[in-house]
């Protein structure tokens, strides 16, 4: 009997893209989407207390309350999916990880490989090269491009496996709330204020929409953070007195900010 072929992707868009490729039906028994953005927040996820800590952090810090429920669900959802993948690994399932070049996908891959210790021989991970012909992630790829990724999957050996495990163990032990890739691709822990100067550089003396400031900043930082993360930091800059606000500090569409004339902290 052939082993089950489980394909791991990152984000609901990537899942829909892969499922839409009829030519791959014979090579895909199931698709699992991991959705939690591990670039921000606590990541000691090996215990129930650590997962609850992450859920509480997401709910209390990321300001758009409309997003809180699904962001919380991603924490438990990803954990449950990984446990299911572990169970399938015991039955010799073939695990294909569609890891792109983005920091979020590499972090999620490192976490998954760490959790699958002892089953590295089951893993095949995409290694997408840096060139202009292939998108950096399945989530931004046109369906007709997907077949181009196949040749970049490679079986995980002990050395490659060890690199992923070491990366996750290091970042987890550093207890940071922000993780960013350097120009050479190495992912490092950073202070939560890491992107604040970029945000401030796009703020003026007149009111501007928060969505505009975050959008321009995302381009400057090569999308190394999500819009919800930059929204959180923009709110913190208001609370610290660096910026003045007009509107409700919630989702990006609900407020505008400008440079503060006098620095006054908000409660």
UniProtKB/TrEMBL annotation:
Pfam families: DUF1835, DUF3658. Coiled coil: none annotated. InterPro entries: DUF1835 (IPR014973), DUF3658 (IPR022123). Residues 6-119 form the DUF1835 domain. Transmembrane segments: none annotated. It comes from the Bacteria. Residues 154-256 form the DUF3658 domain. This is DUF1835 domain-containing protein.
């Amino acid at each position: 009997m052939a082993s089950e072929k489980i394909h791991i992707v990152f984000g609901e868009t990537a899942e829909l893209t892969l499922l839409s490729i009829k030519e791959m039906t014979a090579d895909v028994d199931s698709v699992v989407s991991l959705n939690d953005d591990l670039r921000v927040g606590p990541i000691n996820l090996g215990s129930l207390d650590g997962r609850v800590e992450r859920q509480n952090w997401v709910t209390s810090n990321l300001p758009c309350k409309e997003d809180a429920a699904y962001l919380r669900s991603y924490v438990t959802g990803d954990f449950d999916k990984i446990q299911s993948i572990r169970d399938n690994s015991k039955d010799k399932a073939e695990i294909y990880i569609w890891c792109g070049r983005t920091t979020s996908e590499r972090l999620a891959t490192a976490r998954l490989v760490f959790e699958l210790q002892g089953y590295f021989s089951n893993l095949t991970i995409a290694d997408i090269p840096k060139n202009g012909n292939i998108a950096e992630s399945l989530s931004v790829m046109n369906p007709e491009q997907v077949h181009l990724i196949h040749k970049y999957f490679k079986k995980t050996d002990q050395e490659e496996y060890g690199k992923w495990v070491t990366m996750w163990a290091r970042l987890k032990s550093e207890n940071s709330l922000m993780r960013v890739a350097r120009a050479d691709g190495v992912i490092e822990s950073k202070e939560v204020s890491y992107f604040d100067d970029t945000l401030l550089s796009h703020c003026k003396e007149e009111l501007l929409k928060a969505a505009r400031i975050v959008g321009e900043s995302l381009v400057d930082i090569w999308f190394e953070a999500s819009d919800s993360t930059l929204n959180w930091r923009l709110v913190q800059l208001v609370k610290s007195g660096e910026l003045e606000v007009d509107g409700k500090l919630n989702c990006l569409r609900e407020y505008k900010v400008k440079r503060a004339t006098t620095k006054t902290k908000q409660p």
